[in-house]
Amino acid sequence: MYVHGYGAREAQRLQDQANALTDLLHDGTAVGAGERLLEVGCGVGAQTVILATRSPEARIVAVDRSADSLAEARRRLAAAGARNVTFCRTDLFFLPFPERSFDHLFVCFVLEHLTDPGTALRLLVRVLRPGGTMTVIEGDHGSALFHPDSEAARAAISSLVRLQHEAGGNALIGRQLYPLLVAAGLSDVSVTPRMAYVDGSRPELADAMTRRTFTAMVEGVREEAVARGFLDRRSFEEGIAALERAAEPDGVFCYTFFKGVARRH
Q1: Which among 178, 160, 163, 168 has a CA at the least distance from the CA of 214?
Q2: Predicted confidence (pLDDT) per residue in 62-73, tens digit
Q3: Which of 28, 36, 64, 202 has the most CB within a 10 Å radius?
Q4: Is residue 148 reached through a cis peptide bond, with omega within 30 degrees of 0 on the bond before it?
Q5: How far is CA 123 from the centre of its chain?
Q6: H helix intervals, the chain
Q7: pLDDT for 40-68, tens place per residue?
Q8: Which CATH code is given to the segment(s) 8-145+168-197+254-263?
Q9: At what angle do helices 67-80 and 8-26 cross, to 10 degrees?
Q10: Domain ranges within the chain, ordered by starting residue
């Protein structure tokens, strides 16, 4: 279950996130001319645009199970002028591709929403050719740090973590990437932390990352968290205000993403 919803606001948040984190997350990712890459769970195409424009001679297949998300992804790719992507509506647990049919797999912010990410990875390995690589990127909400510190902000974040857990996902999955990739039977597993650090010297990043990416993500579950009694409305609003405060010129925010790269035997 995707706890953030599929509305226009979430689509914009995903695009803001992709724009803010392009260099941080995509550094070291390259697909050669003629190579085939499968992007799993492409959503509205926020990461797909980056993949397609950075590797214009690659052949990319992007899949998602949401028809609405795929429609938005097609629109974004057309607007970017990318012509090297084919879209397919399917579930990652039932991929309609032959074994060993891709040179690379790209899985970004997907595992955190799955009840069984280990099985998902093992199934994905099936469509990767021997020697091919899998790139997996996940966040970890437990890594969020901010100044001024705030118990209210941490409580609001915890309500999102709990909501995702009750939906069958894991908002703390970033720290588990290495054992998950090893258990999937992959080799040459390497996981690197990618920290997004923001202070008053970078006001544009504070707006893009602290406000429009992370705070907006937490704010997006307000109604559900309040309805379930995780926090009362006033406490939740205090938490959001504290996160907004971290985006001010004297505030600081940092968050760690984890990027795993592995190879099929």
Answers
A1: 160
A2: 999 999 999 999
A3: 64
A4: yes
A5: 20
A6: 8-26, 46-54, 67-80, 117-126, 151-166, 177-183, 203-205, 216-219, 222-227, 233-245
A7: 999 999 999 999 999 999 999 999 999 99
A8: 3.40.50.150
A9: 60
A10: 8-145+168-197+254-263
